[in-house]
Amino acid sequence: MYAIVRCGGRQEKASVDDVLTVDKLAGDIGSSVTLPAVLVVDDETVVSDPAALGRYEITAKILGAAAGPKISMVLYKNKTGYRRRLGHRQKYTQVQIMSISDGTGGGSTSSSAKASASSRKKD
């Protein structure tokens, strides 16, 4: 099972336990965020209807901040002595997808949650 989620101005493919680098999000490290789904693929079922997508919930945990590559810019005007060097690094946030679930309690959860649930059943 995987989902296409919207985060910032882009769309990312997300499945359980994936680590995504998305535009900077407000929140503390370890807090969870919910990302809106654009498309959900579960085995052979593809859900793209906005009304049906409203019940899907993609939960992610914030892992920390990241920065993109340095972009160097040079401004120059001929014969005037005008020269400027500028640099920029875009700020990003790394998130880990914890679960993709629909409103009925189905869907995928993280592998550690599956392992703990299965160990509880054996006891």
Structural overview:
It is elongated and about 70 Å long. The chain has two helices and eleven strands; from the N terminus they run E-E-E-E-E-E-H-E-E-E-E-E-H. Residues 116-120 have low confidence and may be disordered. It has helices spanning 50-53, 111-122; strands spanning 2-7, 10-14, 19-23, 32-35, 37-42, 45-47, 57-67, 71-77, 82-88, 91-101, 107-109. The longest helix has 12 residues, at 111-122. The strands form three sheets. Strands 3, 4, 7, 10 and 11 form a five-stranded antiparallel sheet that branches. A four-stranded antiparallel sheet has the order 2-1-5-6. Strands 8-9 form a two-stranded antiparallel ribbon.
Summary tags:
about 120 residues; mainly beta; 2 helices; four-stranded antiparallel β-sheet; five-stranded antiparallel β-sheet
The Cα radius of gyration reads: 20 Å
The percent range for helix content is 10-25%
Structural class determined from secondary elements: mainly beta
Shape: elongated
Mean pLDDT: 86
How large a portion of the residues is in β-strands, by DSSP E? over 45%
**Terminal Cα separation, in Å?**
28 Å
Low-confidence runs (pLDDT<50, min 5 residues)?
116-120
Order of helices and strands: EEEEEEHEEEEEH
Major beta sheet summary? 5 strands, antiparallel
Total beta strand runs: 11
The number of distinct helices, counting runs of at least 4 residues, comes to 2
